[in-house]
Write a structure and sequence with these properties.
Elements lengths: L1 H10 L5 H37 L18 H9 L9 H9 L3 H4 L6 H15 L3 H21 L4 H20 L12 H5 L5 H40 L13 H19 L4 H25 L6 H20 L4 H18 L9 H7 L5 H12 L11 H9 L1
Helix pairs in contact: 4-7, 6-7, 6-8, 7-10, 8-10, 10-11, 10-12, 10-13, 12-14, 13-14
Protein name: Dilute domain-containing protein
GO molecular function, one term: GTPase binding
Pfam families: DIL
């Protein structure tokens, strides 16, 4: 009996599990009701906000970011296109410009350094500091000379700064106030003309001289590279028009690829198209003269079949000029002496009455050159059987 009482007392010491679960359920129900009430409140708030957003936006205008109003002087400098460089910083300023590599320059606005220097010059002219203006151009030319000496064999560097020097010169001309240089200027550009007339005139002369020197340097380097190919590609190449090129024609391909690379480089850095044409006129003249001089001393080339091959090779050069849009008439004029020499080698019949006609047909050759080619044909290979009759030679000498 006592044992039963003790067991009952021990069970009362533990909580009832069912009661505990019931309490937790009631608590969760109350929490769920509070969440539902909060959701109803949020839903009504969202409905009100949505209705407000459908109203005109003018009622709640967005606040624009505040910007500092520029001063009048700043506006003038901005629209005038000027850059202020402290006189003590000119050397460093030019050094940084000349560090521009051809690879990077090719991806930028053509002649960008020239425009930057010109903006600096305009500011110096605007404030009337002619000493700083002179110094800027002098420092540019001095440091450019040093750069070209260090990079004497780099055509890209020379062409890059030829283009920039010419652009700077053209800008000085355009804003000089001289009528012939500003025919295409707008009224605003004419109003922005440089005021330092005498100073600008002197600088134009200096820059023009420098640009001419750089251009001659570029031409000299180009001629040095095409010289080894001139005779091989024009006189020795065995290509025949209308027939598949033999393996030896790779020399002509090398020459054409080199000319194409020159054209691409000149265009990439913004060289004036007229100057590009003049440069190729000089190159074609050099090719023609070099090949013609070699022909004069190569008696083994002075025969009919070689004349035909020379004409075929010249046709390749003329085709290239047409494709690359170099002026055809100028190219033909530069190649005319060599073409007439090749045509002279193809003459098969001679008599005394043809002397005047022959001289007229070879108007780009001197009488001495014609006589030399005819004499070389006499002493050329007998196998070709196209020697010039002695009677014709005597008649030509008398004529």
């Amino acid at each position: 009996m006592d044992d039963e009482v003790e067991v009952s007392s021990t069970q009362d010491c533990f909580p009832n599990p069912e009661r505990q679960l019931e309490n937790e359920r009631e608590e969760l129900v109350r929490e769920l009701e509070r969440v539902r009430a909060d959701n109803d409140t949020l839903r009504s708030g969202l409905t009100r906000l949505s209705a407000e957003k459908q109203e005109p936006l003018e009622e709640v205008p967005p606040q624009a970011p505040r910007r500092r109003k520029p001063k009048k002087k700043e506006l003038d400098e901005y629209y005038e296109g000027m850059i202020e460089i402290a006189p003590n910083d000119i050397d460093v300023f030019v050094d940084h410009l000349l560090e521009l590599s051809p690879e990077v320059a090719g991806s930028l606005l053509p002649c960008l350094p020239a425009y930057i220097i010109f903006m600096c010059i305009r500011y110096q002219d605007y404030i009337g500091d002619t000493d700083a203006l002179h110094n800027t151009v002098d420092v540019y030319l001095k440091k450019l000379t040093d750069l070209l000496k260090r990079k004497a064999n780099d055509i890209d560097v020379a062409v890059l700064w030829l283009a920039n020097t010419l652009r700077l010169l053209d800008n000085l001309k355009q804003y000089s106030g001289v009528t012939c240089f500003g025919k295409e200027n707008t009224q605003e550009q004419n109003e922005q003309r440089l005021k330092s007339d005498i100073c600008v005139h002197v600088l134009r002369a200096t820059l023009s001289e420098k640009a001419s020197y750089i251009c001659q340097t570029v031409l000299k380097r180009m001629r040095e590279l095409v010289a080894p190919l001139a005779v091989s590609a024009i006189l020795e190449n065995e290509a025949v028009m209308g027939i598949s090129r033999p393996k030896s024609s790779f020399i002509m391909d090398m020459l054409l690829e080199l000319l194409t690379a020159y054209k691409r480089t000149l265009n990439l850095y913004g060289v004036d198209p007229q100057l590009v044409t003049n440069i190729f006129m000089q190159l074609f003249y050099y090719l023609s003269a070099n090949a013609l001089n070699s022909l004069m001393v190569r008696k083994d080339f002075c025969h009919w079949s070689r004349g035909m091959k020379i004409l075929c090779n010249l046709a390749y050069l003329e085709d290239w000029a047409r494709v690359e849009k170099v002026q055809d008439t100028w190219v033909e004029e530069m190649l005319a002496p060599l073409k007439q020499a090749a045509q002279l080698l193809q003459v098969r019949k001679y008599d005394e009455c043809d002397v005047d006609n022959l001289i007229e047909r070879c108007s780009k050759l001197t009488p001495t050159q014609i006589l030399t080619l005819l004499q070389n044909r006499i002493t050329a290979h007998v196998a070709y059987n196209d020697n010039v009759p002695e009677a014709f030679m005597q008649s030509f000498k008398r004529g």
